[in-house]
Specification:
Blueprint (H helix, E strand, L loop, with lengths): L3 H12 L2 H6 L4 H12 L7 E5 L7 H5 L4 E6 L2 H10 L4 E4 L12 E7 L10 H11 E12 L3 E5 L9 E5 L2 H11 L1 E11 L2 E10 L2
Parallel strand pairs: 1-2, 1-4, 2-3, 4-5
Antiparallel strand pairs: 5-9, 6-7, 8-9
Keywords: Methyltransferase, Transferase
Pfam families: Methyltransf_23
GO biological process, one term: methylation
Length: 206
């Protein structure tokens, strides 16, 4: 198998806006509920980071209205779309697993269905980095795997688009959060078709 990160980048580059169009009807209210929950706990003008922002809809568009928002994505095509869709936010092309920020840079960090595109062996270190980037009492909102699985799909969303995922099970993610120093604020299963994902809302202990 070729480089998993290249698979992810090329897959999202190839899909462009069709990725968002495909999921627009997949319970968009769920995102609003999650983001509202986070926004209500943040100080005004908080600094926020999203890992895997795609085209900026809905997360960047929602959060940039009241906060200082930075979105990161490995796909240059998605970042260009995001800059057009949400011109008042900031976006950069980057691999989330090798990012570097000063400690205590953000009040909140978001990663919805994006960490599971990173090879599993790199995810514990990324979670520890998130903890360091957050200010004391800061929040991390994420959706990760509910069951352990690593693999690819050859025709994801449309014919010819290859995509890669790598994920642990929910109990493993919970243990990684706790070991990193997070307090679990909320955790639930997010059903999708015959399977689903794990939602975690965690807080950095001051």
């Amino acid at each position: 198998m070729k480089n998993p990160k290249l698979i992810v980048q090329q897959g999202y580059d190839r899909l462009g806006s069709r990725y968002r169009e495909h999921y627009e009807n997949a319970n968009p209210e769920r995102y609003v509920d999650w983001l509202t929950k986070l926004a209500q706990l943040l100080p005004s003008n908080a600094n926020l980071l999203e890992l895997g922002c795609a085209d900026g809809i809905p997360t960047a568009r929602f959060l940039s209205q009241g906060f200082k928002y930075l979105g990161i994505d490995i796909s240059p095509v998605q970042i260009e779309l995001a800059r057009t869709n949400v011109p008042n936010a900031h976006f950069e092309v980057a691999d989330m697993s090798i990012l570097s920020f000063p400690a205590s840079s953000f009040e909140g960090i978001i990663a919805l269905y994006s960490i599971i595109h990173v090879p599993l062996a790199e995810q514990p270190a990324l979670i520890k980095a998130v903890y360091q980037w957050l200010k004391p009492n800061g929040y991390f909102l994420c959706v990760v795997g509910a069951d352990e699985w690593t693999g690819t799909e050859a025709n994801w969303i449309e014919s010819g688009t290859l995509m890669y995922w790598s994920q642990a099970d929910a109990a493993t993610y919970q243990s990684w959060f706790i070991e990193s120093g997070f307090k679990i604020v909320e955790h639930c299963f997010v059903p999708e078709g015959t399977s689903g994902h794990a939602f975690f809302f965690v807080q950095k202990i001051a």
